Amino acid sequence: MPPNVHAITLASTPARTERLSRHLYDRGIPWTPFDGIDAAEWGLCTKWRYNPSNLREGQEVPQKHVGLHLSHYWLWRKFADSSEPIMTVLEDDAAFHDEWESEYRIAMESVPGDWDMLLLGSGNTSDKHRVKVAGNVWKVDGPACTHAYMIKRSALPVLLLTQKLSWAPIDASLVYRSYPHLKLYVVLPRIAYQHGQEYIVP
C-alpha cells in the first residue's frame, strides 16, 4: 500500500474530489486531502514565460498550472514539517488500474534502496531514452506528468530549492530543474493513470 497518501484537491471542484474519493475507496487506498491553490480564485499568474532557454521570451504559463505548481510546493513543505519518511502525492484526476496492488509490490521490490522519487504514473515515456532497472522499474529521461508519485525526505532539499520558480507546467519544471539532481525512477507500465486517459499511450 502506498504510504502517507495525500491528494491535491480544490474546494471549487467538488465533483473531482468526490470521484477521487470513491475511486480510492474502491481501490482500498487510505488518503488525506490537501486543499490546493486555485490560481483563478486567488488571482494568481506568473510573469515568467515557458521557455527553458529564455524565461522572458516564450509561451504564457496557463493560470491553472501556476496554482498546481504552488499546490505541489506547499504539499512538499507540509511533508518537510512532518516526521514521515515517505509521502505519496496524487492529483485529483489520479486513478489506479485494477491490478495496481501486485504491480506496486513488484515496484517496491525492484526499485533501488537509494531512490529519491518514484513515479507511479507518468506520460510521454514511449519516445524517451529508458533503461530497465529491475521488475517494472525504469530510468527514463524526462518523463511527464505528476498525477501520482512518491518522494522520500531525501528529495525535499532539491525540490524545495529548484521549484521556487513558477516558469512552466510543474512536470516540465521538474524535468529541467529537479530530476537531474534526484535518483528518479518510473514504474512502467504505469499503475496510475489520469481519469479518462486510461488508454492513452504512456
Describe the structure.
It is a single chain. With 202 residues, the protein is α/β, with parallel strands linked by helices. The chain has helices at 14-26, 39-42, 63-80, 100-110, 156-162, 170-177; strands at 5-9, 32-35, 49-50, 59-60, 86-91, 94-96, 117-119, 130-134, 137-140, 148-152, 184-187, 192-194. 30% of the residues lie in helices and 23% in strands. The strands form three sheets. The protein has an eight-stranded mixed β-sheet with strand order 2-1-5-10-7-11-9-8, sandwiched between helices. It has a two-stranded antiparallel sheet with strand order 3-4. The protein is globular.
Helix content estimate: 25-40%
> Which secondary-structure class do the elements indicate?
alpha/beta
Q: Write down the secondary-structure element order.
A: EHEHEEHEEHEEEEHHEE
Got a strand count? 12
Radius of gyration: 16 Å
Largest sheet: 8 strands, mixed
Biggest sheet strand line-up: 2-1-5-10-7-11-9-8
Strand content: 15-25%
> Low-confidence runs (pLDDT<50, min 5 residues)?
none
Shape category: globular
Q: What do the pLDDT scores average to?
A: 95
Oligomer: single chain
Count the DSSP helices: 6
Spatial separation of the terminal alpha carbons: 23 Å
Question: Could you list some keywords that capture this structure?
Answer:
about 200 residues, alpha/beta, 8-stranded mixed β-sheet, two-stranded antiparallel ribbon, globular
